[in-house]
Amino acid sequence: MSDNQPNFETLSFRIGLTGTYWNKKPQYTVLLNGAEYGKGKCDESLSYVEFTIDLEEDKEHTLEIRLENKINADTITEGNEIVKDMLLNIDSIEIDEIEIGEIKWSLSEFVADDTKRETLKRCVNLGWNGSYRLKFTSPFYLWLLENM
After folding, report:
1. 63: nearest Cα among 140, 117, 131, 8
2. Nearest to 139 by CA among 7, 31, 49, 41
3. Which residue, 78, 88, 93, 82, is CA-closest to 128?
4. Closest by CA position to 33, among listed 11, 62, 58, 57
């Protein structure tokens, strides 16, 4: 391979998701760099989205997990207290069999589809339609060491 050809790293992803709901299950989509790698609905039982991909090194990549199907009627309040709700919970993120732990909070952001809502840092329980985003670089192990 010549020096001007990009190098690639093969990474395996395993994302653990659960749903909190009273009426309908949260619907999710998992994307990496805008390409879809998983879609479905989840309940209270832990379920996983797993995929393997070759990523170009020395580039920034974005893992995105979306809540797709929440409407206002999915949140029930009594006074100012939420008594029933629907949430998509990101329970775990493993990259190459390494649970990234605290990094899933500390380096992430949540961007709601409703542009009137502010971007949230450290949000892994998605209560609005929108995207959890975790940006990382490849080689993954160097990025991980820098951010532990």
Report:
1. 131
2. 7
3. 88
4. 62
pLDDT at 6: 82
| Residue pLDDT, tens place only, 44-94 | 999 999 999 999 999 999 999 999 999 999 999 999 999 999 999 999 999
Does residue 68 contact residue 37 with C-beta atoms inside 8 Å?
A: no
How far is 52 from 16, CA to CA, in rounded Å?
15
Residue 147 to residue 113: CA distance in whole angstroms: 28
Q: Is the dihedral of CA 32, 35, 18, 85 positive or negative?
A: positive
CA 40-21-69 angle, to 5 degrees, is 45
Residue in the structure block whose two tokens are 């951010």: 147
User: Is pLDDT at 7 greater than 90 in this prediction?
Assistant: yes
Torsion of CA 41, 50, 46, 114, to 10 degrees: -50
Q: How far apart are CA 107 and CA 20, in angstroms?
A: 24
* Count of beta carbons in the 10 Å neighbourhood of residue 106: 12
